[in-house]
UniProtKB/TrEMBL annotation:
A family per Pfam: HTH_3
Signal peptide annotation: none
Organism name: Candidatus Neptunichlamydia vexilliferae
Protein name, entry field: HTH cro/C1-type domain-containing protein
SUPFAM superfamilies: lambda repressor-like DNA-binding domains
Coiled-coil segments on the chain, per record: none
Domain HTH cro/C1-type: 32-84
Length: 152
């Protein structure tokens, strides 16, 4: 991945995470109501502008109705607003990659330990840990296909 692409993804993820924290627990309906009120618009006016029944606006704002995409688009357009859908990783991309590398290395090491047990060999734990860490570093340098594909 190019450095500019990596920086772009990092900035988008950081902005999305900040927005997620700010909006934590705020549902779409109450948020529509907040914006509508800030715009000094009544439910009746919003409904008329959006070409939906006023009762629909009321139910959405109160959380009794989850709007479909078409209705949501009409309401947001009537408020001169856009809907933002973004991706927010649950943790840093580096951590996700490292966890996956650890999964792959554990699979390899389990096979190695099994083979050694069959041969009645007991690996040195310090050496095994060093080997484990080195394998994690190596696998993180591999192309994505090797990192994510399942063993056949």
């Amino acid at each position: 991945m190019k450095k500019s692409e990596k920086l772009f993804v990092e900035r988008v993820v950081a902005a999305a995470q900040k927005l997620q924290i700010e909006q934590k627990g705020v549902e779409i309906g109450p948020l529509i109501a907040l914006i509508r009120k800030q715009l000094k618009m009544s439910q009746r006016v919003l409904a008329k502008r959006a070409k939906v029944p006023q009762s629909t606006v009321s139910k959405i704002e109160s959380g009794r109705l989850k709007p479909n995409a078409g209705t949501l688009e009409k309401i947001l357009s009537a408020m001169e607003s856009d809907l933002l859908i973004t991706i927010v990783p649950k943790e840093s991309l580096e951590m996700i990659l490292k966890k996956q590398a650890i999964v792959k290395v554990k699979q390899k090491m389990a096979y190695l330990k099994g083979t050694m047990n069959l041969e009645k060999q007991k690996p040195d734990e310090a050496l095994f840990r060093e080997l484990f860490d080195e394998e994690v570093r190596k696998i993180l340098e591999l192309p994505g296909r090797e990192l994510w594909e399942e063993e056949l």
